[in-house]
Every structure is written in C-alpha cells, then in structure tokens.
Predict the 3D structure of the following.
Amino acid sequence: MSPLALLAASSGIDTGDTAWMLMATALVLMMTPALGLFYAGLVRSKNTLNTFMMCVGAIAVAMVTWALVGYSLAFDGTGSLIGGLSYAGLHGVDFAPREGTTIPHLVFMAFQATFCIITVALVSGAVVERMRFGAFLVFAALWSVCVYAVLAHWAFGGGWLQANGTLDFAGGVPVEMGSGFSALAAALVVGARKDYGRQALLPHNAVYVLLGAGLLWFGWFGFNGGSGFSTGNPSVLAFTNTLLTPACTLVVWFALDLLRGRKVTAIGAATAIVVGCVAITPAGGFISPGWAMLLGGLAALPSYAIIVWRTRTRVDETLDVLAAHGMAGFFGILFIGFFAQLSWNGVSDGLFYGNAAQLGDQALAALAGPTYAFVATFLLLKLIGAVTPLRASEHEEALGMDVVQHGEEAYVTGEGAILVLPPDGGAVGVPVADPG
Amino acid sequence: MKLVVGIVRPEKANDVLEALYRAQVRGVSMSRVQGHGGELERVETYRGTTVQMGLAEKVRFEIAVSDEFVQPTVDALCEGARTGAVGDGKIFVLPLDQAVRIRTGETDHGAVTPVDK
C-alpha cells in the first residue's frame, strides 16, 4: 500500500459521510437567500431589496466573523460557558476528522458556518422596513459572536447544556429560540415602523413568500439531515421527519385558517411550512416518525396563537420570527422531553418512556436559551444605538429603504431615467459600429 | 361642478383618503402616475450604470364635486398630502361640463352627490 493510501485509510474519514456533508452544507447556505425571498415577499414593494439584502449581508458578515472567532468560541474545547480561541482564524482546522465525527474538520466548520449565517439573517425579520443597513451589519457582526456562538457552544460545542444532557439535534436552542427571542428584543429596541397600527402594511408578493418557503424546506433537508454529521440512522431519521412534520403542520394550519376565516391562506401555508421545519429541528433525530407527525400538528397551535395575538399589540416584530422560530423551537425542544425514544435514537428516553429527567434537561434549555438571547440582544442593540442611529428617519422610511439605503429599486421601470455619462462624455475607447 | 385633480406622494395617499373621508367626500378615483415637478432628482446605480431618475412615483386623485364641496376637497388634499418638503404635489381644479351616474342616468348635481341609503 502506498503511503498516501495508507494515510487515507487510517485517517478516520468516511467518504460517504463527507460527500453528504458537502452537499448538506450547500443546501443550508441556500436557505439564506431563500429566507431573503420569503422575507422580501412579506414587506412592501419599496423595501424589497433592503429586506433581501439583510440576508445577503448576513452571509457576508457572519461568515467572516465565524472564521475569525465565532467558530472557535463555539467549538473549541468543552468550557462550560464559552469555547477557547485556538481555532481563531481557522488555525488548525484542516483535513483531519473533527473529533467525534468521520468528516474533515474543514467540512464540519463550513457546515456550522451556514447555521450561524441563517440565524443572523432570521433576526433581521424583526427590524425590516426601518433599520439602517449599516447599523444592521454592525449588529450582525457582534450578534453572530456574542449571541449565536455562545448559544451554539452551550447546545452543540460541549457547553453546559450539552454536558447536562439537553438534546438538541439541529439547533432548537441557538438557531430557533436564539433567533426568535432575539427578534423580540430587537423589535422592542428598534421600535415599530412609523405606520404600524395606523395603516394596513401588507405583503407585496405572496408568490415570493411561497417560493421562499419551498426553498427553505428543501434546504432544511441539509440542515436537519446533516446534523448527524454522517449518513447514519440519526441523519436518516431526521431527514425523513423533515418531510413528515411540516406536512402535518400544514394540515393543522389549513384547519385553523378555515375555522378563523373560512379560507385557507397562501401566506398562512408558507408560515406553516417554516413552523413545521422549525419544530422538527431540535427533535429530528430523537423521536419516531409517528411522534414527529404529532409534533407537526401540535406545533401549529402555539405559533398560530402568537401570530394572532402579536398583530393586536404595539410590538412590531414585523415578520413574526418569535412565533415561527422562537415558539416552534421552544415547543420542539420540550417535545423531545416527552417523546424521545431510546429504541429510535440510541441516546435517551423521554418522560413518556419512563425517563422524566430528560424533560427537566429540556425545560432548562427552553428557559436558559431564550433568556440569554433576549437579554444579550437587548443590551447589544442599546449599545450600538448609543453609538450610531439604529433606524432611518421618518422621511426616509416613507420613501422606502431600497432607494434610501441602496440607491436601487426592485421594480424599476426605466421611464424618465437619464444616463449619467462620465465627465469626458463617455468616450472610453470602445469601438461602436458606424450606423451610416 | 368641478373636477379636482390632486397629484400627491404615494406614501401620503392613505392620509389623503382619510382626510377626504373626514370631509365627507365619498366619490374618488386614484391612479399611480409618474411625474416631474422640480424636486431634486434621485441618482441610482445598477451594476456601474448610473442614472438620474427624472420621474418620481406619484398618486393622482380625481374627484368630481358640486361647487360647495370644492373648497373642502382642496383643503382635505392639502391637509393629507403636505409634508413641507419639495415634491408634495399639485392640485388642479377644472370646470366640469356634465356628469352622469351610469346606474340611474342621473346627471350633474345628482350624479356627483353620494347616495344616502
């Protein structure tokens, strides 16, 4: 055997696992532009690009902070509250397998990076249509390190929740409750849109919303299916549950829509897809397909109730991140405590199968995660707000964030647009065919 | 009998509708138009192509009213549409020769007065 082949065989890398995780990473990255589409359809047309750009901005900023310090703080060592800095700048993150997995450390890091990115993008849903783009980018950079990396360490990186026995398959704590309860804090600090509660502020394109939700669901197969870091049973279970749960949420959501308004709504359906995917995120690899279907049906109820309640308040948590992510994630985390099943997950039973302690561990996470996310985000935004204005002026908000923040419009017609030529009249030496 | 035409900012359209409603003006049509009236031109850039947007989005109200309603209508348009900055729009009051309500065939004053049920 050649030395090179020997090295590969003894390295502990599984090619099948690695191939799937490369694919899963790409699937999860796609969820962020998909979220951009989902969010863009839910806002007014004059804010389409700004809303989408917050998601694109999350990719830019969170990927960089993740590589510089975020990954290290989340996944270096088993410190109780926070990881170390030895992976800072991706130092030592290479082809050797990540401890406890059969995939290269680099792939593991990249997969986790896409989680950080989408979580930052999720929070933007609370502040669209009025937050300044620059202030959001600063917030995204600090939040990805101070909130996401900390919660990811607690739940996945060997921090106190994981050490304590809390089960969180694909990010109920850092991603779903982390974004949902941070979104509530962000909405409170930034404040409501100027017309909120005074005028009807309607979604401008329901097709974007449905298409975005569909692409999110597609990407979620990588999100949940990849969180076993292999092609083994937990991944297969989580992958299939990602199909079952949202379908059941859709059915129940249809029924709730029919009861309340006698019509099944499209934007309700898009919301239900997200709620179902969120609910199965923490539980994916821990509960049987049957319980996953029940979870999907039940998870619709609290999220639906929060959406109905929230729109009657003065809290302009604009795109209902708390209801869709915070609440459904909370529900999913607790559900594991009841219906986790050793014969399916090989890890632990829940209360229903005789292990009441698991419910306690889940309840602890359901309390600690939201509390930290809310408080840390509240303080972080107050801090940023003390240095730079968080929101655009009323006049700018009226004009629309696309023109004001980006100098572009989503639906530009070109009528009345006059080409601005460079000072020399545009003669830049490009040969033009002589019409004569 | 006059036709009042008001061209206002799109973001003030809802305020104008509210003000008209308070002034008891019930018959209104509105359309989206693009116009230019001396406000500063916005500059936008698309992949290196910089353009001046010479036309701004506006909303055009058309309201046919009997003579005693002309002033309240103009006042409501001003009240709803004014921000104080350049670009608030214009109001034109035009004479109106005839108005017909299609459903009943009523003409003129009867046609521009809302039906009280």
Residues 26 and 114 of chain B are 6 Å apart (CA to CA). The first helix of chain B runs from residue 13 to 22.
